[in-house]
Amino acid sequence: MHALDAYELYRFFHIGDDETAALRGVSLQVCAGEIVAVTGPSGSGKSTLLACLTGLDEPDGGHVEVAGVRLTRRSQANRARLRRANFGILLQSGNLFPHLTVEQNVRLQMQLAGKPDEKRIAPLLDSVGLVARARALPTELSGGETARAGLAVALACDPPILVADEPTAEVDRDTELRLIAQFEARRAAGLATLLATHSKALAQRADRIVRLKDGRVENG
Ligand code: ADP
């Protein structure tokens, strides 16, 4: 069974009389222990795909299954429950509460998932290179630090599926290698990882690359 299965996803946006087809029949599978990279030019549909895969957005056609359970066309509450049980999510919209420090954000995520583990917080922040920024508020972080803090939150409970949009944007080479090591540790632990990325270094370490263009899979 796949960790994540998407069948023929379609998503249209309407502004006035204009229609944009952000996804035009995208199918994609991610297995446990696999890293899949989604690449493609800006506007090709990556963010829309990630939002539909995690149930944060509803596709207009097609459906998504998480560990064999249908996620699409369920109530908000059911989608939220499935999301909490299965996903760690870092999208462009961010996932940090602005009034909490980095460390408090990670702690809250663990508490919300019912998995508080004070001992894991420091090693987790270390693994994303943010120990020194543990007490910083999100507004005090650089772009790269924000992405890494968001990643720490998304990774906080070792989610069965990590979905991250540009997790290595604006980070230096050393940090990028450190984050890649994180993703590889997830692979070794049999967890699924799906990353939208422009980074060649990151895409090269993926088990599979799904290239999007104009809302379609180019290499499908
Ligand atoms: P990417 O993440 O690859 O840059 P997106 O998924 O953000 O691509 O966007 C795909 C297409 O859908 C683009 O043409 C974009 O303008 C359009 N789009 C995305 N979200 C919206 C929205 N909320 N309203 C209108 N158009 C949107």
TrEMBL record:
Coiled coil segments of this chain: none
Keyword set includes Acyltransferase: no
- Gene Ontology cellular-component terms listed: plasma membrane
The ABC transporter domain extends over 4-220
Q: Which GO terms describe its molecular function?
A: ATP binding; ATP hydrolysis activity; transmembrane transporter activity
Top-level taxon of origin: Bacteria
Keyword tags: ATP-binding, Nucleotide-binding, Translocase
| Assigned protein family | Belongs to the ABC transporter superfamily.
Q: Under what name is this protein listed?
A: ABC transporter ATP-binding protein
Q: Give the organism the record lists.
A: Mesorhizobium hungaricum
